[in-house]
Design goal:
Order of helices and strands: HHHHHHHHHH
Strand content: under 5%
CATH class of the largest domain: Mainly Alpha
CATH superfamily of the largest domain: Tetracycline Repressor, domain 2
Number of helices: 10
CATH architecture of the largest domain: Orthogonal Bundle
Length: about 220
C-alpha cells in the first residue's frame, strides 16, 4: 500500500462511517413512519437517492442493515433511560423512573419497539438477522449497561453479593415488566381494541409497585 493511500485511509473510513450512519438514519425514518415491513433496501436507497448496488457497499444484505438498525435503536433506548436515571435524586424512585421512561420512549414509537422486541427475536426470520449470537454479543452488553447503573443506584456499599444480586434481579424484572406493558399497548393498537385502563394508570401502577418493593428492600436490615 502506498504512503498516500495509507494517509487517506482514516479519512476514507470516516467518510464510510458517516455514510453508514446516513443509511441507518434513513432506515430508521422509514421504520418509524411506515413500519418494519417498509424497511427494504430499495426503500432506503430510494430515500437517499442512491442505487441499490451502491448501498451494498455499506450493507451487504438486508440482514446486515436490520442488525445495525436494531443495535442503533437499543442504543437510543438505553441512552434515554440512563440519562433519566442520572437525574433521579432518590434511589427508591429508580425503578419507577425506568418504567416510566421505557413507556415514554416507545409509546409513540411502537414500530421501533416491534422491530427490536417483536418478531425479530421471537422467531428465527432470516431477513432480520437477529440470532442468539447477536443477542449475546451485541444486545446483552448494551442492556447490561442499564442494569449496571440501576444496581449502582440501588445497592449500598455494605450490601452482600447475594443482596446486590437480588437488587439486580429486581431491576431486570422491572425492565421486563415495562417491556410486557408496552407489548400489550402495541397489541391493543394493532387490533384496535383499547385496554380497559389508560396508559397513564397502568404505567403509574407498575412504577409505584416497583418503587414500593425497592423501599422495602432498602429498609430491610439484611440489605445493609
Amino acid at each position: 500500500m502506498s504512503p498516500e493511500k495509507r494517509q487517506r485511509s482514516p479519512r476514507v473510513r470516516k467518510k464510510r462511517e458517516r455514510m453508514r450512519q446516513e443509511i441507518l438514519a434513513a432506515a430508521r425514518d422509514i421504520l418509524l413512519q411506515e413500519g418494519p415491513e417498509a424497511v427494504t433496501l430499495n426503500a432506503v436507497s430510494g430515500r437517499l437517492g442512491m442505487t441499490k448496488p451502491a448501498l451494498y457497499h455499506y450493507f451487504d444484505s438486508k440482514e446486515a442493515l436490520a442488525r445495525s438498525l436494531v443495535t442503533t435503536l437499543i442504543d437510543e433506548e438505553i441512552n434515554a433511560l440512563t440519562d433519566m436515571l442520572a437525574e433521579v435524586e432518590s434511589a427508591e424512585r429508580s425503578l419507577g423512573t425506568m418504567i416510566r421512561g421505557f413507556h415514554a420512549h416507545y409509546a409513540d414509537r411502537l414500530h421501533a419497539f416491534r422491530f427490536v422486541y417483536g418478531q425479530s427475536q421471537l422467531y428465527t426470520i432470516p431477513e432480520f438477522g437477529v440470532d442468539a449470537d447477536m443477542i449475546r454479543d451485541e444486545i446483552t452488553p448494551r442492556t447490561r449497561r442499564l442494569f449496571d447503573q440501576l444496581e449502582s443506584q440501588l445497592a449500598n456499599s455494605d450490601m452482600s453479593a447475594d443482596r446486590r444480586q437480588a437488587i439486580r434481579r429486581l431491576a431486570f424484572v422491572a425492565w421486563t415488566s415495562a417491556l410486557g406493558l408496552v407489548t400489550m399497548l402495541g397489541i391493543a393498537e394493532a387490533t384496535r381494541d383499547p385496554l380497559l385502563h389508560s396508559d397513564e394508570v397502568l404505567v403509574d401502577t407498575l412504577a409505584r409497585a416497583f418503587d414500593a418493593r425497592v423501599a422495602d428492600q432498602l429498609q430491610d436490615p439484611a440489605s445493609r
